[in-house]
Amino acid sequence: MRNATCTTIAPTGTLSMIAGCSSGVEPMFAVAFIKTVMDNDKLPEVNKYFLEAAKKRGFYTDKLMTEIGETGNVSHIEGIPSDIKKIYVTSHDIEPEWHVRMQAAFQKYTDNAVSKTVNFRNEATRGDVRKVYMLAYETHCKGVTIYRDGSRDEQVLTVSTVDRGKGGKVQQAEAHMGKLEIEPRKRPDITYGSTIKMKTGCGNLYVTINEDENGMCEIFTSMGKSGGCAAAQSEAISRLLSTSMRAGVKPEALVKHLRGTRCPAPAWQEGGIVLSCPDAIGIALEKYMHDKSGHGEKFVFKQSAEQRVLGETCPECGATLEHEGGCNVCRVCGYSKCL
């Protein structure tokens, strides 16, 4: 044959839901589940054949459907006939190894790749993922897709709860619910990073940025002068930034909110003016990301026209102070730093 990829098994998730049929070689994701579409709209789905069987054989109750909706499967529920349980096996009832072996069986007689997802439970480890990849290679699969349940804040297919291992179960993706409460990941025992010295109007600020295996995870700040209000505020900002990073907030978003924050005593540093301690932390973060990205050019922090205003600002009206008679004074409101 001239065309080496005449046959394939394509992804048919949404199409199978519309048609009310099975999805390729995939098992059912769940007997009852929620599909998230478009602008976070949540559509509850229940397998119609299971409903028909439950009503026909007399074990259907509203309580039963609520119980199924909590986990998505029927293997653990009393009162459902064993022959029904054997038919309605869901993706999480099947061990990852057998997901791969099912794919391999169809791959043997399919020219192109086979669409198949290996569904991992929430407590799956990196070692579990490695085993699946190696098994897919050994069984001559042309590709393999894995997904660990609950690994994203928003996922297309969900049930009302996700097993969190020792932490028990947490609510997720019910039709009447909004987003999950986000908990920051635990700080590891060992981190690595860099310390950047920044000049501010309050003195030298030393910004330490550390990473773990998932990326930036914490920021420590230390003022050259110990104690004082500036040191307390910098420490509070560092704690909030560290929590945000471990909760998955992008560092670029944090930089955006820090940069440009002004205080009455800006300071000059090579590359431009540092408007405040929060601005200094933002610049340090920006520099760290720039250096980490491997850009050859020297880092220069960008400033808006407003940020290029020279001198300290008046704490009363915000105008630029002028140096006169050994003191900074404001020509607009009459404020004097020496009074």
Description:
This protein is an alpha+beta fold. Helix content is 29%, strand content 20%. The protein is built from 9 helices and 14 strands. It has helices at 13-19, 48-56, 62-71, 82-87, 96-107, 126-138, 228-246, 251-258, 277-292; strands at 32-37, 41-46, 117-120, 145-148, 157-158, 161-163, 169-171, 192-200, 203-212, 215-223, 267-269, 272-274, 322-324, 327-329. The chain has a 3-stranded antiparallel sheet with strand order 2-1-5. Strands 8-9-10 form a 3-stranded antiparallel sheet. Helix 5 (96-107) runs parallel beside helix 6 (126-138) and helix 8 (251-258) runs antiparallel to helix 9 (277-292). Residues 161-180 and 305-309 have low confidence and may be disordered.
Topology of this protein?
Elements: H1 13-19, E1 32-37, E2 41-46, H2 48-56, H3 62-71, H4 82-87, H5 96-107, E3 117-120, H6 126-138, E4 145-148, E5 157-158, E6 161-163, E7 169-171, E8 192-200, E9 203-212, E10 215-223, H7 228-246, H8 251-258, E11 267-269, E12 272-274, H9 277-292, E13 322-324, E14 327-329
Parallel strand pairs: 3-4
Antiparallel strand pairs: 1-2, 1-5, 6-7, 8-9, 9-10, 11-12, 13-14
Q: What is the mean predicted local confidence, pLDDT? A: 81
For the biggest sheet, the summary is:
3 strands, antiparallel
Rg, alpha carbons: 29 Å
User: Beta fraction of the residues?
Assistant: 15-25%
Number of strands: 14
Poorly predicted runs are: 161-180, 305-309
Structural class: alpha+beta
Q: Please give the count of helices.
A: 9
Distance between the termini: 92 Å
Q: What's the shape?
A: elongated
* Helical content (DSSP H or I, runs of 4+): 25-40%
Strands of the widest sheet, in order across it, are 2-1-5
H/E element sequence: HEEHHHHEHEEEEEEEHHEEHEE
